[in-house]
Amino acid sequence: MDARGPRWLRGQDSPDMIQSFRWKILPLIFLCVLFPHPPLLIADSIPHKQDPPLVVMNARYHMPEAGEVIFVWGINGWRPIDKEMRPPGTTVDRRLMYSPMVHVDNTFTIKIQVPSGATVDYVFLIKKNRAGSAVDIYDTNGKRDYHSVAAEGVVAEVKGRTLSELTDPKVKIGIWLYLATGIFFVLAVAGISRYAALLKKRNIPENRTVGVICTSICLFCSLVFIRAYILKFDWNSLGSFFQLVPRMILAAYHDLIYVAIITMLFLVLHALIGNNKKVLGRLGIGFTVLALFSLLFSLANIRIVTTLGKPFSYQYLYYSDFLKSVEVQKAVSYNMSIDILFIAIGVCGVVVIMSRYFSMTTSYILFRVGATKLMIVPFIVILPAYILFGKGYVSKNGWDAARLENPVSYFVMSYLSSYDNPALFTMKTSIGFEDFRGDSYGKTIKEKRKLKLVRIKNVIIMVLESVPAEYLDVYGGRYHVTPVLDQYRGKSLLFENIYGHAPSTNKAMFSLLSSAYPWISYKSITQEYPAVDVRTISKEFKDRGYRTAFFNSGDTRFQGGDKYLAHCGFDFVEDVRTRDCDQPKFIASTKEWSYQDSSDDGCTALSLANWITSAPEQPFFAVMWTNMTHYPYFVSGKEIDFGVEDDAFNRYLNALHHGDRALGHLMRTLEAEGLEESTLVVVLGDHGEAFGRHNQYTHASKIYEENLHIPLILINGRLYHRQESPVIGGLVDVAPTIMDLMDLPTPAAWEGRSLFSEDRNPRVYFFAPWSDFLFGYRDGNLKIIFDAMRNEYEIYDLSKDPNETSNLVDRFPGVREEAVHRLAAWVQFQDRYMKRLVGSTKE
């Protein structure tokens, strides 16, 4: 045949084909003559099944603790649908479709187009929690999956369980299981004793080398199952389990390396000791203890990896004051129970029993065969092959590297690497403590002249919860959400470079009121030591006869804020619980996330206004803290479309817009009472909020500009007329600045300095101790970030790169060396400062 195909396909007719075609066409011509209206062709006359119509099905997943959820689905036995029918952003992996869900008011929704009557199989993949940290938790309906039959208008609604229940559900064990397990262990121990006596009677010695190897094999098998659990391996039948076994073993690559190392170490010690039975017996017990410790550490690692995203490291132990926090103690007590301890002890017992049976049986077989040294063969042949193949398999599979690490070896390696990493709390530093001493204040000559003409009598601090500078119109924001601030821009001084010191509300509260850097710990001073002996700005005004008040849209009980405020010198404290308002409250608290409810920021402003007008002739100091811009972002009234794709971000902008209106109500009250010229209104943020930049959401995980660069605006029409200040400062400097403007002395213990001081240093410091331990500072145009967990540095030139996209660490080696010493000086000074405060409080 011609390579171009048959001749009739190339337009060259075959005579045989034409003759055959003539005879085949004659019957068709005859039928057409007989029937002017020819019947349907036979093929068309056979009824055929039509494709079912397509319908739109809605899925709703209620999960207040989640920040990002993926809809994992298929139809009629997890089969994917055609590409053109899939929702936007859908990806396919191993025939499963992964479609992102839309987040609206604690609920995640998605619309899918599928054939009518199809069975939709689905589960939910929670990618991030509400704090923006990666979690990768599946809600599989107790391994039964979710199933719905598609029909027009059908809404598949699922109320998710808490993340704790999904990741590590509380295990309830009945008394009968306790009893049965006890009987099993008694019989097993009795069986081992009888087995050992039988071997002894037959003069069959138990080989110590065999015992170590058998224990290591049982340990590795246990670690394989633990690794499979961490990586979410799942099987529905015995057949699928056996299909997964090779992948499970390869996924435990780092566990095998760890087990092989400790086994080799003990075998070498065994060879060096010789035939000293007493020492060999102790060595065998030591190996069993090490194996059980490794097993318990690996069991704990399941929860640790879920919470931290990585195994426990020495750096975490060094920087975290481990187990000293009230929150950590509560978390440990929540996850510890008799049932959990029973399971841990039971697993260890099973490993010990199985290794003993395995060891005695293997010793007996090898003794009978006369080939005791055959046990070494797997280590010589199989282990090297596994190492070569397993390493490549693990690296190509796309698993999260942190979830593959053996927790014991990870901790040991992190400890060994700590000798090369700077230990900020203890290292020697050549930098002094001048940056942190608040002992130099003084207004510029220009500022002094202003204050001679203007007498400030009252102070209001309005804190915008979770609001960075970049979203405000006066800072170049492009969303046009703060028209009231725009209106008063002509009567204000705007500071361009002010920072929060940690992306945390209660740490910001402490720094703002106490003029002190926060405790360099993930613990909160408001919760651990609410009665801390420190002079707050509210105490300073109260002692001078001012009325003082604190108004919070949220719940002040969060992290002990209510107890801390009770010692801050406020005459009156009001929050969402005690506020009476016509607007309904926003309810967002859950079992896992308490104290999340909020009142309307407009109601909070109204409460403050009523308090002011109750005695307008008396000087006052007041703080108003908004809350609608805190996650999950509350909307009052009809939601405005600000033209952003992220629904959560649009809700956030609505909340910010509403907070701006609350400021307008407050300013109008001052004007109506004739107080606008004698009142200094300070508008600032406590920290920022992220919506995707640097792959993060909300605020607590990083220390980039979107997390910490906050607004600071001083409003008073007699003092300011659209001025700007490039001074670099932080929350720690706000209280001294206010006291400076009021021409009042400041407490010697304050760490901050007035932003009008002529001898200010050009640096401000910050940190984040939650997902990683991050330390940083701003020095002129440069911003330096140090990751103490990974010993990595980032340096950005904010004058050219305000979004921190280009790390210049290689271009500034000198800055990197200086940064370590500056951060160490700050950490050590602050550590001593807080120990003095806490020590005096305890006394």
Strand elements, count: 24
Spatial gap, N to C terminus: 103 Å
Return the structural class: alpha+beta
> Order of strands across the biggest sheet?
14-13-15-11-16-19-12-20
How much of the polypeptide forms β-strand, as a percent range?
15-25%
Count of alpha and pi helical runs: 25
Question: Any idea what the radius of gyration is?
Answer: 35 Å
Largest sheet: 8 strands, mixed
Fraction of helical residues? 40-55%
Average pLDDT works out at 81
Uncertain runs are 1-48, 325-331
- Outline type: globular
Features:
single chain, 24 strands, 843 residues, alpha+beta
Would you mind describing this structure in some detail?
Helix content is about 40%, strand content about 15%. It is built from 25 helices and 24 strands. The strands form 5 sheets. The protein has an 8-stranded mixed beta sheet with strand order 14-13-15-11-16-19-12-20, sandwiched between helices. The protein is globular and about 105 Å long. The model is unreliable at about 1-50 and about 325-330 (pLDDT under 50).
